[in-house]
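Hi all, long-time lurker, first post. I run a small reading group and we've been trying to get comfortable going from sequence to structure in the token notation. Rather than ask abstract questions, I figured I'd post a concrete chain and ask someone more experienced to write out its structure so we can walk through it together at our next meeting. Sequence below, copied exactly:
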Amino acid sequence: MHYGDHMRGRPRTSLAHRTFVGFTSVLLLTSCVKSITEDDAAGFWALITRVRVAPATGEAHEGFREELDELSDHELRAFTQHWSDHMALAADDYVWDAVELAECGCSDDCFYDLRTALIMLGEADFHRLVQHPDEFVDLIGPGDRLPFGSIDWSIAVDEAWHARFPHEPSPGPRVRAQAGETEHTSAQLSARLSRLSARRKHPLR
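-- Answer (accepted) --
Happy to help. Here is the structure in token form:
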């Protein structure tokens, strides 16, 4: 039997056609990796999703830095801008109050690390907890602790920035941080953080 015998009855494809199909497949695969621009946070969150690991470990932190090192100069600038913006968005007085109620206290360093961890949760959970901080109550674990650890994820961002742009300051946020501006009353806390407030009055054991 000749080689061509078992191919009879099948539509023939030219080399040009096969090359086009292969090239199209590459384009489709590439399009799944979103570019990071300052005007659109989709690429920023896509990178966060790729490196998000639970629980947080040193290996995950190193993987985050490696992802940042792979970015072009333009993308690293855009990513760092979005990181700064979202750190400011999470710097909200009610978020701080929620953490204080959840863990019986919250230092400046604790709140900073927690905001980096909120970003690493991904887009949906970040916005959910920032907009509805009373939902922190569902995350409280043994010992009245939130499951975020103490890793400062922004270290990887700062290191990547200063390695690439050693003579430039990293960009500041384009939104205004609200933390530290308002001291809420017990009535305000009970209204906005009703579940956390009730839990603190009647701790779960």
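A couple of things your group might point at:
The two ends are 79 Å apart (CA to CA).
Residues 1-32 have pLDDT under 50 and may be disordered.
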